[in-house]
Amino acid sequence: MSDDLLSDHVSNRGIRLSRRRFLQVLAGGAGALMIGIRMADAADVDVPLPPSLLGDTFYGIGAYVRIDTDGNVLIGVRDPDTGTGVATSLPRIIADELDADWNRVSVVSLGLGVTNNNGEPSWIYGRQVGGTGGSISAAWADLRQAGAVARWLLLQAAARRLGVPADRLRCESGTVIALDGRRFTYGSLIEDASKIDMPNSVPPLKTAERYQLIGNPAGDVDAREIVTGQTRFAIDQQYGDTLTAVVVHCPWPDGTLDGIDFTDTLAVKGVVKVLQLNPEAGQQTGTTLSTIAVAVVAEDTWSALKGRQKLKLKWKPGASNSESSDALEQQAVALLAGKTDPTTRVRNDGDVDAAGKKAARRLEATYFQPWLAHATAEPMNCLVRVEKDKATLVVPTQAPQKAWAVVHRLTGLTPDQIQISVPRVGGGYGRRLDHDYVAEAVMLATNKDINKSVRLMWTHEQDLDHDYYRSGSVHQLSVVIDHKRQITGWNQRMASASTLVNRGVPDSRLWTSEVDVDQLPAALVSNYRSDWYGQTSAIPRGPARSMPHLSNAFAVESFIDEIAHSMKEDPLDTHLRLLGEAREVPLSGGGTFDTGRLINVLKLVADRIEWKNWLHSVNGLGIACWHFNGAYVAHAIEVASKDQKLVIQRVVCAVDVGRIINPMGLEGQVAGATLDALSTALNLSITFKDGQIQQRSGKDYPLASMAQLPDAVEVITVSGDRDPAGASFLAMPTAAPALANAVFRATAVRIRRLPLTKELSRLS
Amino acid sequence: MALAQAQALPATTGTIVPDKIRDGIDLLINGENYRHTGDPQMPLLWYLRDVLRLTGTKYGGDHGENGADLILLKGKATSAISVTVAKASGMDIVTIEGLAANDGTLHPVQQAFIDEDAIGCGYCTPGWIIASVDLLKRKKQPSDDDIDTLPNVCRCGCQTRVRRAIKRVAAGKAGLP
Known about the structure:
- The structure holds 2 protein chains of 2 kinds.
- By secondary structure, chain A is α+β, with helices and mostly antiparallel strands.
- Chain A is 27% helix and 24% strand.
- Chain A contains 19 helices and 32 strands.
- The longest helix of chain A has 28 residues, at 135-162.
- The interface between A and B is large, with 65 and 58 residues.
């Protein structure tokens, strides 16, 4: 995901060693040893907090690790877990470095860590973002140090007690062990350890052969609570005096409220108040309401919903009331067919036009991507209590620091007067990087007529028709092939409405959410051009899962399959010829593209699905690969066409993310993202007409049923020793093209437009 | 001593007023009795979540589209938003909180979901578990086609792992390596 999507105080990168970093040892009130990393941009924070200030509270001190005298270890997790498994994997990274006994580790969500630095926020835990693929790599860069320092202190304490050098001791599973076999549990050492001064520099981190937890499978730390219904998501929480609010949004993003009669609503028992909520002028997308809304505030959900039912509202459309997704697509097609200059020439290697003059063969194809919604399982909701000098919130968010900014603006409270806790989140996929729902809840809770805490709950219907959508797009690809059957020129032109409009991103960077400068086959074809044409739309757009790779991989990997077919070549061979020798190719966005790692995952899926044997079978086989964010993925899919119905017989996915933290978690993420991508490709599209979203309920935006999806996803993970890359949506981009390529082999129908089921029945 | 003459009974004993039957609707949830005195038309989902604070049953769409609001009503997986408190009265209701034994021993389906890591974000997991319990009650050895009939959806993509969990229970291997 583009870093630009995480503007407003948040960076997608980990805290690097060069940034100011403070490790602290804190003796808690109960005599526990606490190790934290404090991160702040302000020099005056470089003063350790006196223990007397800390009490025995774990929160708010920047602590990641707490070891108690009984040997129990508590590890704080800074990043929201939206189903990505970071609540398990991040603590395991720390616990391994600490040589803790995992059976004695418990995990707590830290919530937002913020202090007041002269009115400005200081983020004491550094980056706090979930579900954007960056948690693991950021943690690898900084969290391991917390574990290493704790282990170092315990070793020093044991060394002093025994009168031997610390390097004669080793740690294992919560115990320090001397050469002569004497052992001290961590719990017995913490009082001494908390009196030892911090090391001047971070002690050496463990080498890979000594990992005990990293690389070994672990179930989700929350699993037992989840399967027994005990997990409290934000939507499950309330304070004693909490009122429930439900809303109705204007059906047009720029519409207005033309008339309202809420007499019948107020007559409903339990209804307290009806309020109008307005977007704040001049605020960026995602930080205020996207449309005007009317809220019904009541004593409980059912009263609020009954009251909402009785509202009589008259909406007036705004200027966007003639917009339609069809017209926008036609405009895109016209743009790409025309001679106008692109909004941005994203990349231009060599000379595509000159290469075209020497073409033995050319091929061109246009691919169409629909608009998409997020459809999270847990709807948008937010619990807020605002007092004179304090705001307390429970927010299902992927970026608590961005939620903080909204609360700060609306309440005027100082940075540290805003407390945000983030329980486990019922799905994010980018939707919860925007905080319009937080703005709504805070506006209600600060209304003088409410004066109570408020929990706001959207319905799924509202999630669907008031989302920040992924823009539809049109991709026009053309290729030049010389007489030696080599691809010598690649020209791709794409049109879409950028997600980054009105998000504080300069016009010259609006393309970054839409296309990747280094995406396949960039750097592999000497004459390569990528143009982006920006479109305007009033329909709100926002970050989406695996953006911009989801749309582009479908176009590129389908097109490579078409190229193979036109040359009567095995598409696996076409891929391998394109990738060439295993080598490191420098990327313009930084880092390198290791073609060998991509070739490897591609061959792994081909071998597993018995590509050679099946190429001419009655079933169709399709293959696709992709690389992004330093990770590599390939899919091979086998489909059968039975009684004119498409059946996905087999799905194989191979990934290479570098070092694997939790193989069980990784397999789940890969299988899950594969199924999400298949569900999306098969069924899903958002359309709008007369400026209004046409999908009103889950029936109109049907996530795939169990019957539509494959019975299994065979996941192959390549373990490596490079620093770990994120995995939560790695398997998204290649599933759809592998499926469409398989469908072509099975049915001879080339799918160039998603969703696939609808397109296949149109073309068949 | 002569017995005191019995006093004549008063002519009337006054109006006997029987104890008023308390208002409300009786509910049997997870083996406990509850009485709801609010709106009889309140969907069971909101009664569970707002009144009893049994929040394991989730909101899953206004018509229960994604299956997160499934409960067992007379042993059958039922959308809790689609049945009113009045209608559920007197029926045996089991929610996700009531599946495990009193000593904390998990139901085999709950255990198998842990074994197979059949969890994404976890929001819709209770609904999947309730649907699986229902299926396994009807079909001890469900086929893939039987499993295909589960009504739930999940954007995190837990379906293949749910399938494994159900097969694990059918094979009697919940909780085993």
